[in-house]
Design a protein that fits this description.
Blueprint: H1 2-22, E1 28-33, E2 37-43, E3 48-55, H2 69-78, E4 102-107, E5 110-115, E6 120-127, E7 131-138, E8 143-151, E9 156-164, E10 170-180, E11 191-194, E12 200-203, E13 210-213, E14 222-226, E15 230-236, E16 251-257, E17 270-279, E18 284-296, H3 300-311, H4 321-324, E19 328-333, H5 339-346, E20 350-354, H6 372-385, E21 389-395, E22 398-400, H7 404-407, H8 411-414, E23 430-432, H9 438-455, E24 459-466, H10 486-504, E25 509-514, E26 525-528, H11 540-544, E27 550-554, H12 559-571, E28 575-579, H13 583-598, H14 601-604, E29 606-610, E30 613-614, E31 620-626, E32 630-636, E33 642-646, E34 652-656, E35 663-664, E36 672-676, E37 680-688
Parallel strand pairs: 19-20, 19-28, 20-21, 21-24, 24-25, 25-26, 26-27, 27-28
Antiparallel strand pairs: 1-2, 2-3, 4-5, 4-10, 6-7, 7-8, 8-9, 9-18, 10-17, 11-12, 11-14, 13-16, 14-15, 15-18, 16-17, 22-23, 29-31, 30-33, 31-32, 32-37, 33-36, 34-35, 34-37
Helix pairs in contact: 9-10, 12-13
């Protein structure tokens, strides 16, 4: 105990001289002005305060000292049937959640929150119009840090380095940056747009809350907080997941939520990044940079910026031409569905085949379901004879103890372990593998190469990487420098698989079930399986990555659910993956695939305008995609017909349906009258004046 106290006092003494020598007393003030956004900070004996976030393009202020009671009531009145306000962070003290950051730790089984504005001592303050740098110490916790906010050409770079000055490991969540009481247009009208699956618009975050993990439910670490004609964007461009070693990795969530429903006026909507981390004694970790900026116009303007910013971090693998021109994939599960029959039933160019191996997860030698090795090769040849391709599905995460690999007694060495050291077992007798373990990477890569080489398959679909919980790994056998190695491991595993595939067939296609943008360096595309009933309703993913080959999996479900899924794919600019054994799903997908084939801009063009419909409806999306031509898509995912009008950028004079030839002219106001039946999508070529 004496040694620990001495170390703590020594750590504080190391910090104090610098502060005493170089920092005048409070109060402090600084304004950082980037091209599109301005931040106003102050400091006092209580801590660090962010008092203003202003859109420099419009002059609009986005931080409120308090929400008006009428604004909170408007959220409630807008949807009486939706229940109470979002519980948000009800386990946190609302008074502690203040701009611009918050640290939470567990103490004696209780969550303790330390806010920048209420629980920090400022050791050094240096601020100009171009940069703020603050050294600080949390009161009541041996953790110190450096905050920096630096102005860029169009946005600001936010970074924070934390240091564990104590004797014990620190497990904490740092909400950085965290903007509380954010209002763009109004609490009732603002939306959070997130790359969850193909894209989700979260309405009224005071009522709906989200904390989505990058690498699991979130395809990319960014958010647009939109208020109709302007908004704010956050892009987390930390590169630790791409580094040579995972020592600087941590777990990241994008947060959009209400907080403290007991007094929503006091805190209101919160937008930010939650960073789950572990720091050994004496260690430090840098969070960010998180790029924060503002925009004016539709949120597609912010998407164009994100496209550029993420493009500086990530490279994308060039897929074969046949995949780029495929609007539809068929799926088949042996022996219930024949691969060649699925291809014919759907009109797809390729089929994803499951169930061809043994009865246990992790066995990928052709089993009796396909007639053994000779039967699997014949199934592939029959598809090839029809001009199609075959992709074999492989689990990149789960292995049964009864499988061939499990019987070899090596699973425990490669498996994920929880914080208690127990093996992670999602199903009885089935273990979850650690993607960062080199043994597992080598086994999976060798298995993938063997499947392609031995069967003449055209590629693979890897399950469980972009759609699972990105679980931390506490296996001592793996010697991880931090448990938060999932994303880093996925990136390394895919690199190993791609290297082995290139040795047997450089043109082999590699798809990932679920989407995470860091996989694009080695993967050719993604299958998106809607979870928890959440269908994509805005083209957020395609807006940021126009060239992504993303296929929405259409369930073999009742016709209404199928139709709604197909309409959602059109609304999000996605391709389709359909069960070849479901005649209902196959027919619905064929209907949309005719539009996708005639108008490839829907799945490959750049989003040029969003939210053009009037009157706006949550179940309706209208988007304009531009490549060789401009193509308007209006999708009605609701159960009532949509009769409204659509506004296009100036210069467009007509809409023409490429399948029926029907033409739509603008009305006297210049808007285009549109009717779309329930659970359907329609598309038109938008003709420009003189075109």
């Amino acid at each position: 105990m004496t040694h620990r106290l001495c170390f703590s006092l020594f750590a504080l003494l190391l910090l104090a001289p610098s502060a005493l020598a170089q920092t005048p007393g409070p109060p402090y003030a600084a304004t950082v002005r980037a091209g599109s956004i301005a931040f106003v900070f102050s400091g006092d004996k209580q801590g660090i305060h962010l008092t203003s976030v202003r859109n420099a393009l419009t002059g609009a202020e986005y931080l409120r000292p308090k929400l008006a009671q009428a604004e909170v009531k408007a959220v409630t009145d807008a949807s009486q049937s939706a229940g109470p306000l979002s519980p948000g962070f009800t386990d946190l003290d609302a008074s502690a959640f203040a701009n611009p950051f918050l640290l939470t730790v567990q103490r004696k089984g209780q969550l303790v929150a330390l806010g920048a504005a209420t629980d920090t001592d400022i050791l050094r303050w240096s601020g100009t119009d171009e940069r703020l740098h603050v050294q600080f110490q949390f009161r009541g916790l041996l953790v110190s840090g450096d905050l920096s906010v630096t102005a860029g050409h169009s946005h600001a770079f936010w970074e924070c380095t934390l240091r564990n000055d104590g004797m014990d490991p620190l497990n904490a969540t740092m909400y950085f940056p965290a903007f509380a009481r954010v209002v763009v247009a109004s609490p009732a009208a603002d939306r959070a747009l997130l790359p969850q699956g193909g894209g989700v618009a979260l309405l009224q975050p005071l009522r709906q809350s989200a904390s989505l993990e990058y690498g699991a439910s979130l395809a990319a670490p960014f958010i647009f907080y939109d208020g109709s004609d302007q908004g704010i964007y956050l892009v987390d461009n930390n590169r630790a997941d791409l580094a040579a070693n995972p020592g600087a990795c941590y777990r990241r969530y994008v947060v959009a939520s209400g907080i403290s429903p007991a007094d929503a006026r006091a805190v209101g909507p919160v937008v930010g990044i939650a960073n789950e981390l572990r720091l050994e004694p004496g260690a430090s970790l840098t969070i960010g940079p998180v790029l924060v900026g503002a925009y004016t116009g539709g949120w597609d303007k912010a998407a164009a910026l994100v496209r550029e910013l993420r493009g500086r971090v990530l490279r994308s693998h060039q897929p074969p031409g046949w995949l780029e021109t495929s609007p539809l994939l068929a799926t088949a599960t042996a022996p219930a569905t024949d691969a060649a029959a699925s291809l014919q039933a759907t009109g797809a160019k390729a089929v994803v085949l499951s169930g061809y191996g043994g009865s246990e997860v992790g066995d990928y030698r052709a089993g009796p379901a396909v007639g053994g090795p000779a039967g699997l090769k014949q199934a592939v040849e029959r598809v090839h004879a029809l001009g199609g391709r075959v992709l074999l599905r492989v689990s990149a995460m789960l292995v049964s103890r009864k499988s061939e690999l499990g019987s070899a007694g090596k699973l425990d060495e490669m498996a994920l372990r929880g914080v208690d050291g127990a093996l992670v077992e999602p199903q009885p007798g089935v273990l979850a593998m650690c993607p960062a373990d080199p043994q597992w990477q080598d086994w999976l890569a060798d298995t993938c190469a063997r499947l392609v080489r031995a069967n003449g398959a055209d590629g693979l679909v890897l399950d469980g990487l972009g759609s699972a919980l990105a679980q931390p790994c506490y296996s001592r056998a793996h010697h991880h420098p931090t448990p938060y190695v999932w994303n880093w491991g996925v990136h390394r595993l895919l690199r190993r698989v791609r290297e082995r595939l290139n040795q047997v067939n450089p043109d082999a296609v590699l798809l990932v079930d679920g989407c995470v943008d860091l996989a694009r360096e080695y993967a050719d595309g993604f299958l998106l399986s809607p979870t928890t009933g959440q269908l994509p309703n805005e083209p957020v993913l395609r807006a940021a990555y126009p060239d992504v080959n993303a296929f929405l999996v259409v369930p073999a479900a009742p016709s209404e659910a199928v139709d709604r899924s197909v309409a959602a794919a059109a609304a999000s600019g996605l391709r389709l993956a359909v069960d070849g054994g479901s005649s209902v799903a196959a027919e619905a997908c064929k209907r949309l695939s005719r539009y996708l084939a005639a108008l490839p801009e829907i799945t490959s063009g750049v989003l040029a305008a969003a939210d053009a419909e009037n009157p706006p409806q949550p179940a309706v999306a209208a988007c304009l995609f531009v490549e060789r031509r401009a193509v308007l898509v209006v999708a009605n995912m609701g159960d009532e017909p949509y009769d409204g009008t659509v506004a296009l950028p100036q210069g467009f004079v007509a809409l023409e349906d490429p399948l029926s030839g029907l033409r739509v002219e603008p009305d006297a106001s210049g808007r285009f009258p549109i009717t779309v039946v329930p659970r359907r999508a329609a598309a038109w070529v938008a003709t420009e004046r003189g075109g």
